[in-house]
Design goal:
The complex is a heterodimer of chains A (about 110) and B (about 650). Chain A is mostly helical and about 110 residues long. Chain A contains 4 helices and no strands. In chain A, helix 2 packs antiparallel against helix 3 and helix 3 runs antiparallel to helix 4. The longest helix of chain A is centred in the C-terminal third of the chain and has 31 residues. With about 650 residues, chain B is mainly alpha-helical. The chains are: A mainly alpha (about 110), B mainly alpha (about 650).
Chain lengths: ~110, ~650
């Protein structure tokens, strides 16, 4: 009860969630409109971290450790994804000499 | 009493021969193929002879051997069982005996042919199915043999399959037989529905236990089975395949289309005589069909010029005689004639084969002549069946044909009519056979190109043996023969006097001699007469040479309409329009759908991402909508919940 009061008095819950939503939407927009593969990749990271923020917020709000654990999982996955994704990006660049997503379309019919 | 006769060896030895020659024959030398085929049929004959000797012990027949259950469904049990009784024994002796002789003959006749191994493997296959047919203890196993001999017949008629006419003849035989088999199958179903069993002994026992069962459904069963018999035994109206079946090699004509397979219908009727006995109507139908076929085929045979076709029509006519015997419930006479006919008609065909062989493939009687001096052994061995078939004493045909005519004569007023038809057919038979004899063997050679040569002894040996059988085969006498067969086919009708029998015999012999004299007059003394007669009666001559236009009528009434329906209705309307249209419609829908959905797959990564985001948003809306709405006080639950 005490800590809940503390948060409510300091920064309201909604602000954290709002920040998370804003970051997530920035990630989506970045993902949709950017052509550079690395920027797209960063947008994905941004979305993941936006979700992480909501997890932590709720975990703090409800005094539950589950949310915190989920954050660790997400960070592990994000790290793995970053490793694999960057490797792919380097391979793609070596092969095609471009990182524009619109031009990486060899699979198209 | 419980000795096993190893009846299974009788069909399985030829089957082994079929497998060996059929699978390996192509790579084996001719001598090995010959040895396999001959040993297989000889082995089968020896087992039959062993069984024949065994059968003389008292009270051993009928001998049943069951090898296992074939079909078990509810109350229905069908065994794989062989039954040996007097009837089966007589038939087996004919099939394996004549069959073995024809195998020997074929060694000489087929020596130069392509596919020598194929021929012998088919012959052995035929022997397998024919012996299964004869030994079968129930109607279904009989049907297996029945269909199997049809298959062997088809394969052998179409042996020279490179020739379109042979391939067509094979198909014709198969399809016409299929029509008969349809009737046979219906008969089997009716038997099953009414008796609950297909085992001959059980059906016979049920009939014996219910003496009041006559006519009705029994007539239906008998007639259905008889339809099968008209197909297999080439009776009106399904006889049309047999003349065309002469496209096969001559030994095949002798074995399958004269001596054994075509008599399967007669055998089947006698085998189920207890059923036919209960339906006077069916018996009358059999007698009438037999009489009609006997005279009809004999009329056509009068003017045929192909030596094998004369014999084919003669076979149809003689099969008619056998059904004449069956039709008055004198089954032993039918089987007696079946046996003597097997001897003399096999001999006819083998002799004709020898003639054709001698002339290097010539089958036209008009190009023969004067062969008496050139191939004397063939001539003499051909003379034996000529005398036998015309019914001149003391040759075999005299005894069997007279027995049938005599039994017909005893059968009331209708029987007198049957007898008269039979006698007229005998006159025609005598005429056409002596015509063949004079045309082929007497006078001068009509083909200066021909250099006939006598056949090898592998061919002449069987001819001599069969001549002997044709001469003495009837001496057994119908009385003793009928007495021997009695346990399996019932007594022959009694009631005549020996004086009457002698009188009728004299009439029959007189008629045969008259036929001989006319043939002598027309084809020996005054050889210009046949042409004048043909010119005098052009319509009759034309109708006969065109075989009563039966093939044309069938073609017009059945084949052409069937083909038209198949082509225009089934092919164009049903297949192309309906089924094809449906397929095109479905393909069109799929194509159109694909063309539309294809636009989604732009290959643009960001458009995919946009769809993904949109989808996620929609899901989110659906997931959250209830909470948002309930928070705003709107109840979206359905009424009643």
């Amino acid at each position: 009860m005490n800590s809940l009061h503390l948060i409510q008095h300091e920064v309201p819950l909604a602000w954290y969630l709002l920040l998370s939503a804003v970051l997530f939407c920035l990630g989506i927009v970045g993902f949709l409109i950017k052509r550079n593969l690395i920027t797209v990749f960063m947008s994905i990271e941004l979305m993941l971290n936006a979700v992480n923020l909501s997890f932590v917020t709720f975990a703090h709000q409800w005094h539950q450790v589950k949310g915190q654990i989920f954050v660790f999982f997400v960070m592990v996955v994000a790290a793995a994804e970053a490793a694999v994704g960057l490797a792919i990006i380097i391979a793609v660049f070596r092969a095609r000499a471009t990182l524009a997503v619109d031009r990486i379309d060899l699979m198209k019919l | 009493m419980n000795d096993s006769l190893h009846l299974w060896l009788i069909p399985l030895l030829p089957f082994a021969g079929f497998l060996l020659n059929g699978l390996l024959g192509r790579r084996l030398p001719k001598s090995v193929v010959t040895a396999i085929a001959l040993l297989a049929s000889l082995g089968s004959l020896l087992v039959v002879l062993g069984a024949f000797e065994f059968s003389f012990q008292p009270n051993v027949l009928p001998h049943v051997e069951t090898y296992g259950q074939w079909i078990t469904a509810g109350t229905l049990h069908i065994d794989i069982s062989f039954v040996l009784d007097q009837l089966a024994l007589v038939m087996l002796l004919v099939v394996t005996g004549v069959g073995f002789l024809i195998h020997i003959y074929s060694v000489g006749y087929m020596h130069e042919e392509e596919g020598y191994w194929r021929f012998f493997s088919y012959m052995n296959l035929f022997m397998f199915f024919m012996t299964v047919l004869v030994l079968a203890g129930n109607a279904l196993l009989l049907f297996v043999g029945w269909e199997g001999v049809g298959l062997a017949s088809y394969l052998l008629i179409g042996f020279y399959f490179q020739r379109t006419s042979a391939a067509d003849a094979g198909k014709k035989a198969f399809i016409v037989n299929r029509i008969g088999d349809f009737g046979f199958l219906i008969g089997l179903f009716l038997l099953l529905a009414n008796f609950g069993t297909l085992t001959f002994s059980e059906i016979a026992a049920k009939l014996a236990a219910n003496p009041s069962w006559t006519g009705g459904v029994l007539t239906a069963i008998a007639l259905c089975l008889f339809v099968g018999a008209t197909g297999k035994s080439a009776q009106l109206p399904l006889y049309v395949w047999l003349p065309d079946a002469m496209e096969g090699p001559t030994p095949v004509s002798a074995l399958i289309h004269a001596a054994t397979m075509v008599t399967a219908g007669v055998y089947m009727v006698v085998r189920m005589h207890f059923l036919f006995d209960r339906s006077p109507f069916a018996l009358s139908v059999i007698a009438i069909v037999g009489a009609a076929t006997a005279i009809f085929a004999a009329l056509i045979a009068l003017v045929q010029n192909d030596i094998k076709r004369v014999l084919a029509y003669s076979t149809i006519s003689q099969l008619g005689y056998m059904f004449l015997g069956c039709g008055v419930a004198a089954y032993s006479t039918a089987i007696f004639h079946l046996m003597t006919h097997a001897f003399f008609k096999a001999l006819f065909f083998l002799g004709a084969g020898s003639v054709i062989h001698a002339l290097g493939g010539e089958q036209d009687l008009r190009k023969m002549g004067g062969l008496r001096k050139k191939i004397p052994i063939t001539f003499w061995t051909m003379t034996a069946p000529v005398l036998a078939i015309t019914g001149l004493p003391p040759f075999s045909g005299f005894f069997s044909k007279d027995a049938i005519l005599y039994e017909d004569f005893l059968d009331g007023a209708a029987g007198k009519a049957l007898w008269f038809v039979g006698v007229v057919a005998a006159l025609l038979t005598s005429f056409y056979i002596f015509r063949l004899w004079y045309l082929a063997f007497w006078g001068e050679s009509r083909d200066p190109e021909a250099h006939p040569h006598e056949s090898p002894w592998t061919m002449l040996g069987p001819l001599v043996v069969l001549s002997f059988l044709s001469l003495v085969g009837g001496w057994f006498g119908i009385q003793r023969f009928a007495a021997y067969l009695r346990p399996s086919d019932g007594p022959i009708p009694e009631g005549g006097t020996s004086g009457l029998e002698v009188l009728l015999s004299i009439v029959a012999v007189g008629v045969a001699l008259l036929g001989w004299y006319i043939a002598y007059l027309l084809y020996r003394r005054r050889q210009e007469l046949p042409k004048q007669l043909a010119a005098r009666f052009p319509t009759a001559y034309k109708v006969l040479t065109n075989k009563f236009y039966v093939d044309q009528i069938y073609s017009f009434l059945i084949v052409k309409p069937l083909l038209a329906v198949s082509k225009y209705l089934l092919e164009w309307v049903v297949d192309v329009a309906i089924l094809g249209g449906l397929a095109w419609l479905l393909a069109g829908i799929a194509n159109l759908g694909g063309a539309i959905l294809q636009r989604w797959q732009s290959g643009n990564l960001r458009s995919y991402a946009a769809w993904l985001a949109l989808g996620a948003a929609v899901l989110l809306v659906f997931a959250l909508a209830p909470y948002v709405l309930s928070a705003s006080g709107i109840d979206i639950r359905l009424a009643g919940h």
